[in-house]
Amino acid sequence: MPEPVPPVLTGAVPLAHVEREGTVESVHLGTVAVRDAGGRPCGPERGDPDTPFLPRSALKPIQAVALLRAGLALDGELLALACGSHSGEPAHVDGVRRILAGAGLTADDLDNTPDLPLGVDAAAAARAAGTAPAPLLQNCSGKHAGMLAACVAAGWPVRGYREPHHPLQRLVADTVADLTGSAPFTTTVDGCGAPLFGSTPAGLARAFARIAVAEPGTPEGRVAAALRRHPWWVGGTGRSVTALATAVPGLLVKDGAEGVLGAALPDGRALAVTVLDGSPRPLPVVAGAVLDALGAGTPALAAATRVEVLGHGRPVGSVRAVLS
Questions:
Q1: CB atoms within 10 A of CB 219
Q2: Count of domains for the chain
Q3: Does a structural domain hold residue 126?
Q4: What is the average pLDDT across 195-211?
Q5: Which of 84, 238, 256, 286 has its CA 20 to 30 A from that of 119?
Q6: Residue 7 pLDDT greater than 90, yes or no
Q7: Quick check: is 112 in a domain?
Q8: Rounded to two decimals, what is the model's pTM?
Q9: What are the tens digits of pLDDT across the range 249-258?
């Protein structure tokens, strides 16, 4: 018997065309979920928004809510860093050290995957200096530093904080279920070594909506404030996630590996995008088109979400969203 087709394949539809001088040379398939503050569909959804998928680093704002629920005393730029996938620029690395130092810890306590910085320039500088891959430089080190600091705040063991049975990760799983509206369909291991909880695009959009409209001072409200005020700490110089957040006042946005993005407007209208081929290329274009359909379009948004196709170093086409 033939093997069953994975649901992610049956739920995907065209989201973007890659056009070169009027010719479509490739198509990105995927799914878009759009929900309001009450979790109801409210915009140009595409494909099956209830398809199971892995949110990857787009889950970080939800994980950060769990850390605050555990008692983590972190706000502002350092909380944004704990929500982010940073580029590994010097201020990012120093910020991770600051999170750890506030809990009486050092970089030696990190247990995420050693790596060079995610940012192109920061990685080039590290290679030129002969720097070896290290947990501190890896783009998830802010999240892991926050996890360690939350364990200290809650009085939980620091050792083994990545294990799914650890009290911190059980709290993260409960928080994912709470904010998305459904229990994770699976638990696996993310690239950084932390547990990764499966959800759906609709669930991710619901979670971003919940965070966006939360009362100030609550864990959700604190995460929302950090993301809105400190977008550079979520990504970095030249990063599309930072450009998108900067282009729309009050927007919460976080991307993830394998073509995932979640975002929410201040009124709680939220979107989640997952790209079937795992490419991040169409994410800003599709997110920009959805935000434009929701009435949040601006010249700044159009500029921040344009992805050009080059021929001999000059623009000869672009990636264009197809949501109709």
A1: 18
A2: 1
A3: no
A4: 98
A5: 286
A6: no
A7: no
A8: 0.96
A9: 999 999 999 9
